[in-house]
Write a structure and sequence with these properties.
alpha/beta; ATP binding; about 15% strand; about 400 residues; ten-stranded mixed beta sheet; disordered N terminus; UDP-N-acetylmuramoyl-L-alanine:D-glutamate ligase; transferase; EC 2.7.1.35; 12 strands
C-alpha cells in the first residue's frame, strides 16, 4: 500500500507556464539565459529566450569573444512574435541588459505584454526584473543604465512585479546606504562601498525595500547575498524579501544561508529562474495567481507569504547544487595541481618570469572553469529540493 505522505515524483506542482526570458547568453557555462532557462525548464516551464549578448563564455574568465545584441534587434524579434500572435506569455524574466538603449526596448516589451495580457486576462501577467548592475560596490554597467533601471522600476502598475537585486544594486535603485550608522556604533561606522568587508544593517535593508514599495509601488522585492553586520563572523549571508501591503508598508522576512568558500558565476540567474517557477507554484497553491501582481491579502504574515515559501525552496536547491559544485571543483583542482608543475622563477630570468605569468593565467582559467555551476548534473536538487532553511519575520 502506498504511503499517503509520499510525494508523487511524476506530479509537477508548478502550473503550466510560458516565460519570455530576456538576458545574456554564453556558449560555455551557465550564466544568464543559459542558467535561468535550464532551471525553469527543469521545473516544467515553457521558456522562449531573447539573448541580449552572445558570448563564448562568461566574463568571469576575464576574456571572451562575442557580440552585444543591438536594441533594434530586440525590438525586431519582439515584433516578429507580435506579428505571429505568439504573445501568450505568463511571465517576463529580464536579466542582464548591456545598455540603456537596450533596456528601453525591454521596458517597451514588458509594458506591451502587460497591456495585452491584462486586457485578455487580468492578473495573469508577471514581470520579474533582475537589475544586473554590479556587486560589492563595483559597478560594471554605465551610469545611464543605472538611471534606466531606476526609471523602469518606478513604473508603477506598468513596472516590474518582483525585483531581485543584490545588496549593492538595492543601494543603487533605492538611494539608501545599507551600512547606515546606528547608536551602538557611536556614529563611527563608515560606509564601505567595495570589498568583502562591507556590512549592511537589516534595518537599513528594510528601509531600502520600503522605498521601492512606497516610492515605486513595487509589490515584491527579494534582496540576495546581503552581508549583514554581525553575521559575517558566523559565516552567514542573509536574503531579505518582502511583499508590500495595500498601504505601501513592508512585510519583510529573512533567510540565513551559509557562505561557501568559492566564487560562482551565474548564481543570480539561477536564483531568478528558480524563483519564477517556485513563486508561480506557491501562488497557485495559495490561490493568488488571479490577483493583480499575484499578491496576498494584508492579513498574511511575512513568513506565510508565497514569496517567503518560494525563497526558502529556491535557496535550498541552490545550496545543495553549489555545495556539490564546490566539491567537484576541489577534486578537479587537485588533479590539476598534480598534473601541472609550475616553473621555478629566477627574478633575473625574463623568460621564466613570462612562464610564471602563463602558469598563473592557466591556473586562473582552470580554477574558473572548475567552479562552473553543476546545474545539469544536479538537476534533481532543483526539482525535488530538501528544505534546509527557515524564513523568519523582520
Amino acid at each position: 500500500m502506498a504511503d499517503p505522505n509520499e510525494v508523487d515524483q511524476n506530479e509537477n506542482p508548478v502550473p503550466e507556464t510560458k516565460v519570455l526570458a530576456i538576458a545574456s547568453h554564453v556558449v560555455y557555462g551557465y550564466v544568464g539565459n543559459t542558467m535561468a532557462t535550464f532551471c525553469m525548464q527543469s521545473l516544467g516551464l515553457d521558456v522562449s529566450a531573447i539573448n541580449t549578448v552572445n558570448f563564448s563564455n562568461h566574463t568571469g574568465y576575464k576574456q571572451w569573444k562575442g557580440t552585444k545584441t543591438p536594441p533594434e534587434q530586440i525590438a525586431e524579434l519582439y515584433d516578429g512574435l507580435t506579428q505571429s500572435r505568439l504573445l501568450d506569455f505568463d511571465v517576463l524574466l529580464s536579466g542582464y541588459i548591456p545598455s540603456a538603449e537596450a533596456l528601453g526596448e525591454v521596458v517597451k516589451v514588458a509594458r506591451d505584454l502587460k497591456l495585452k495580457r491584462e486586457t485578455m486576462n487580468p492578473g495573469s501577467f508577471f514581470w520579474v526584473l533582475d537589475p544586473v548592475m554590479g556587486d560589492q560596490g563595483r559597478l560594471y554597467v554605465s551610469e545611464e543604465l543605472v538611471k534606466g533601471y531606476k526609471s523602469a522600476i518606478s513604473g508603477g502598475m506598468e513596472g516590474p512585479d518582483l525585483v531581485v537585486p543584490n545588496g549593492f544594486e538595492l543601494e543603487l535603485i533605492s538611494g539608501v546606504h545599507l551600512a547606515g550608522v546606528s547608536e551602538e556604533d557611536g556614529g563611527e561606522l563608515e560606509r564601505k562601498p567595495t570589498g568583502d568587508d562591507y556590512e549592511a544593517r537589516l534595518e537599513k535593508v528594510r528601509e531600502a525595500i520600503e522605498v521601492l514599495h512606497q516610492r515605486d509601488s513595487v509589490r515584491m522585492v527579494v534582496v540576495t547575498s546581503v552581508r549583514v553586520h554581525g553575521k559575517q563572523s558566523e559565516g552567514v549571508l542573509c536574503v531579505v524579501g518582502s511583499e508590500r501591503k495595500s498601504d505601501g508598508s513592508s512585510r519583510c522576512f529573512v533567510v540565513e544561508v551559509p557562505v561557501l568558500d568559492c566564487y560562482f558565476s551565474g548564481t543570480g540567474d539561477m536564483f531568478a529562474g528558480l524563483m519564477v517557477a517556485r513563486l508561480r507554484e506557491e501562488c497557485s497553491q495559495a490561490g493568488t495567481l488571479g490577483k493583480h501582481g499575484w499578491g496576498s491579502d494584508d492579513v498574511v504574515s511575512a513568513t506565510d507569504l508565497p514569496l517567503a515559501k518560494a525563497t526558502v525552496k529556491v535557496l535550498s536547491s541552490m545550496s545543495a547544487v553549489l555545495e556539490k559544485t564546490m566539491e567537484a571543483r576541489n577534486a578537479e583542482m587537485e588533479k590539476y595541481e598534480k598534473s601541472n608543475t609550475r616553473a621555478s622563477v629566477n627574478p633575473q630570468d625574463a623568460e621564466k618570469e613570462r612562464q610564471e605569468e602563463v602558469d598563473e593565467q592557466n591556473h586562473f582559467l582552470a580554477r574558473t572553469k572548475a567552479a562552473e555551476v553543476r546545474a545539469v548534473r544536479n538537476a534533481r536538487d532543483l526539482i525535488h529540493p530538501k528544505v534546509r532553511f527557515d524564513a523568519r519575520g523582520l
